[in-house]
Amino acid sequence: MKKILGLLAICCLVACNESGENGVVSPSAGNQNGYQDPNQNTQVNADSIAQHVRDSIAALYAQSSSAVDPFAGQLSSSSFMSSSSLGGFPAVSSSSGFSSSSAIVARSSSSKVTPKSSSAAADVDDGLFKLGLWDGTAGDKQVPTGNKTGGYWYMYDDSGDKGASTLTWGGTPGSEYGDDDLSPVIEACGGLCGTFDLVVGSNPYKPYVGVGFNYGKSANLTGDATSSKGICVVYTSDIAIQLEMGLGAQDSKIGYANPFVTLPKATTKKTADFLWAEFDQPDWATTTVTNPQKALASLKFKFAGTTDGEDGGSGSFNIMKVGASGQCD
Asked: What are the structural domains of the chain?
């Protein structure tokens, strides 16, 4: 490498005298343009010297190619042997591997991977069911769950068990947010309200209908709701409400013996507050669930009959607020 750089320096000196004038450098300095040997009366031909320089550089480059292999992607013999304005002598091009700027490019700030923005990180589900206050009296459409796709109200019934129970909303559902948009109902009722008729049909169990919301878009997506400590509800109902924990795919594994608490009948507005530890499975459960709040998929408000195989009557309800324990006060 040092030999190459030395020869390149000589090229520059030779180029400076490209007009054909005799040089005054010492013969020991190597190649030169138009040098006159004091012991001989023969003019040294500058073109032959230039050719010798080219040949020497090419030979040295071939010998040291393995030493500069790391620059192989940027270095080529053409970059050394191409002519320039220096009287046809070889010159190092700006794209040569010896350019210091080309070695720095890979570490420049422009080559770094741009970090994700904080807004993008905020969209990522962190797996925490952070139950916030939903206020139907303020027209809130979505229960805060910690997942932006969750918290939308829906209804369910016993038709899958061959029951004939029905639920009629206290307002007309819209379609702005989907086929079952309940925001018009919430606006009309100052909460989520309706009437129910519990008809057993061919259902061998207790007839039921219910309303609920999921942690996320999928009914099987679960989150850890430990930080919420529990749930509070402001409501009215003509019968007691069974407030159940939905556990997603685990529901079938425990035979649908989901942990629940009972909201007492309330013909006037009532506030109830429960800790997760107060939720318990029904007496007939055969599989025990431990810390169900750590894998909570949904919360469901079930209106059910009291006797298997018998109709359960009718009534009305209005759920006005839902939040974490202590938020409804």
From this structure: 2-111 (no CATH), 126-324 (2.60.120)
